[in-house]
Write a structure and sequence with these properties.
Elements: E1 2-4, E2 13-15, H1 18-31, H2 36-52, E3 59-63, H3 67-81, E4 86-90, H4 99-111, E5 114-115, E6 128-132, H5 144-155, E7 160-163, E8 176-178, E9 181-183, E10 197-201, H6 213-217, E11 219-223, E12 236-238, E13 258-263, H7 267-270, H8 275-287, E14 292-297, E15 313-314, E16 326-329, H9 337-347, E17 350-353, H10 355-362, H11 365-376, E18 380-383, H12 387-394, H13 398-403, H14 405-416, E19 419-422, E20 428-430, E21 437-438, H15 451-463, H16 469-485, H17 495-501
Parallel strand pairs: 3-4, 3-6, 4-5, 6-7, 7-10, 10-11, 13-14, 13-16, 14-15, 16-17, 17-18, 18-19
Antiparallel strand pairs: 1-11, 2-12, 8-9, 19-20, 20-21
Helix pairs in contact: 2-3, 3-4, 8-15, 8-17, 9-11, 10-12, 12-14, 15-16, 15-17
Bound molecules: ligand NPW, adenosine-5'-diphosphate (ADP) and potassium ion (K).
Adenosine-5'-diphosphate binds next to α15.
Family: Belongs to the NnrE/AIBP family.
GO molecular function: ADP-dependent NAD(P)H-hydrate dehydratase activity; ATP binding; kinase activity; metal ion binding; NAD(P)HX epimerase activity
EC number: 4.2.1.136, 5.1.99.6
Length: 504
């Protein structure tokens, strides 16, 4: 069945790695007559193409040498049969193609599809390009004629529908394929299709939703090719954002938790005033509905009042009761956070660690041991690193983290036994014994200073009332992104305004 890749509130959408997809394909092929899957795939592509471009005069289908190209040839046969004018450019060789692809080639030829050595000229916005160059079998960066066709498709006035995966994107990781490695940014001239639509076949692939996936895949559709839900375990999943539960009338502030935000190195210490970061986290917790929010600034008492935020209670570190609070530690913490971290790690009942708290832990073996010990005593801990902070914790670089974000999040879970939010486009939320979630809310308007502090405060507010730290983290990330998605388009999204837009 063809459907948009939008999770239902009652059922997450599973995402499968290429290895699992191959196993599912093999199992399906074993029980179906030959060529069935490719015919279903081609029909799904043709149907979606007709729906997306009902008035197309020309449909250009660029086909690669493997079965992704076979899907394109099958779609060409189907579209020609439905009355569209199809031009196929094919990079394959009939003698080396798979039996499925050869069968679809014969069907396309029999249907009267036009084959051309080069892309058609003069496509208009109502026409359509179909990228069937590479799918899950892509192993290296496109070069030569394939790279030329990718460039032509990206430059075309007609939108592109990618079959299974945009060519040049890794289905597993959402990074791009470059010679011998993977890249986490779209370098000028990098050979990757920028699709307006992607139709994922049989399974949904995680790379479509994280790293560069969201930029290159466009709107994602999924056709399971009428195969039953796979037994293979999903590598990650997408979840719908549930509505906030109503507040019981008979609740009081004690039900909604005490949040203690610890951070904000003062200007005096090193000439870097970062109290704003902690204030943002505290403001976020407040607007997200926390019962009481305490702000502990590491500025040696220089700041004594916050007149514009009378609801926030200023506290010295010694005056905080970490066992009875949900502690959010690290936002703007600078070097000053180092001195409080041993106690924070030792005594906080529920803890969100962000920014400089993570950087200090990365640089200090004793703090790492203290963090690991929290798991043994079952105390809830959420880490909220961006890719560079994640890299420091893992002893690697941000590029390597971005090259496989799910693997990096899992590695952090394995190392520290905590719930982890690996931030960035398509944030990954992972925890011990849980299928990671890739967040689908949020947008690049969040790429501005302080929005991570807002997430940390929001996460604290949810962790205060949701016993399962993984569920609290998923909820916080979804709500943070949704607040950005609903933010007025004509207004600059700043972190403070985002914090104030959060809802209890
Ligand atoms: N699996 C399923 O569930 C189903 C799969 N289906 C479809 O099959 C697709 C997978 O097909 P696939 O395995 O043939 O791989 P595909 O993506 O066509 O690429 C491999 C070919 O490309 C070549 N090649 C690689 N890199 C290259 C480069 N840079 N530049 C040039 N060539 C390059 C590579 O050559 P080689 O590396 O071996 O030299 C090989 O020939 C899948 O995405 C879906 O669309 C559906 O029909 C039904 C259900
Ligand atoms: N392009 C993007 N798409 C979606 N979310 C983004 C994007 N860029 C940033 N974000 C989100 O914005 C927040 C930024 O956090 P972070 O990098 O820690 O910033 P800061 O330290 O300035 O607060 C994270 O929640 C991240 O997931
Ligand atoms: K493709």
């Amino acid at each position: 069945m063809l459907r948009p890749a939008v999770p239902d509130p009652s059922r997450p959408l599973p995402l499968h790695a290429v290895s699992a997809t191959r196993a599912i394909e093999a199992a399906a092929a074993a029980i179906l007559p030959p060529h069935t899957l490719m015919q279903r795939a081609g029909l799904a592509v043709a149907r979606l193409a007709r729906a997306l471009a009902p008035h197309a005069r020309t449909i250009w289908i660029a086909c690669g040498p493997g079965n992704n190209g076979g899907d394109g040839l099958e779609a060409a046969a189907q579209l020609q049969g439905l009355g569209s004018s199809v031009v196929v450019t094919w990079l394959g060789d009939p003698d080396r193609a798979s039996p499925d692809t050869r069968a679809s080639l014969a069907r396309a030829q029999a249907a009267g599809v036009g084959f051309a050595p080069a892309p058609p000229d003069g496509l208009t916005p109502r026409d359509l390009c179909i990228d069937a160059l590479l799918g899950i079998g892509a192993r290296r960066a496109p070069q030569g004629r394939m790279a030329e066709w990718i460039a032509a498709m990206n430059a075309s006035a007609a939108p592109t529908l990618a079959v299974d995966v945009p060519t040049g994107l890794s289905a597993d990781t959402g990074s791009t394929l470059i010679s011998g490695a993977q890249s986490d940014h779209l370098a000028p001239g990098s050979s990757v299709i920028h699709a307006k639509f992607t139709l994922s076949l049989l399974t949904l692939k995680p790379g479509l939703f994280t790293a560069l996936g969201r930029d290159t895949a466009g709107t994602v559709w999924w056709d399971d090719l009428d195969m039953p839900p796979p037994a293979e375990s999903a590598v990650a999943e997408l979840r719908a954002t549930p509505p906030r539960p109503p507040r019981p009338q008979a609740s009081h502030k004690g039900h909604w938790g005490d949040i203690a935000v610890i951070g904000g190195e003062g200007l005096a210490r090193r000439g870097r005033g970062m109290t704003g970061a902690a204030q943002l986290a505290a403001t976020a917790a407040l607007h997200a509905g926390a019962g009481r929010v305490m702000l502990c600034l590491l500025d040696e008492g220089a700041l004594s009042a916050l007149p514009e935020q009378a609801e926030l209670m200023l506290r010295r570190f010694e005056a905080i009761d970490p066992q009875r609070s949900t502690v959010v530690c690290g936002c703007g913490g600078g070097e000053a956070v180092q001195t409080v971290l041993p106690e924070v790690l030792e005594h906080s009942a529920r803890l969100v660690l962000d920014a400089d708290a993570l950087n200090r832990i990365a640089a200090d073996a004793e703090l790492r041991t203290r963090l690991q010990r929290r798991q043994q005593s079952h105390r809830a801990t959420v880490l909220t690193p961006h890719p560079l902070e994640a890299a420091r914790l893992l002893g690697t670089d941000a590029h390597s983290v971005q090259a496989d974000r799910i693997a990096a999040a899992r590695a952090l879970v394995a190392a520290f036994g905590c719930t982890v939010i690996l931030k960035g486009s398509g944030s990954i939320i992972a925890a011990p014994d849980r299928t990671p979630v890739i967040n689908t809310t949020g947008n690049a308007r969040l790429a501005t200073g302080g929005t991570g502090d807002v997430l940390a405060g929001l996460c604290g507010a949810r962790l205060a009332v949701v016993p399962d730290p993984f569920e609290a983290a998923v909820t916080a990330v979804q709500e943070h992104g949704a607040a950005a998605d609903h933010f007025p388009p004509a207004q600059a999204l700043t972190a403070l305004r985002l914090a104030q837009a959060l809802q209890p």
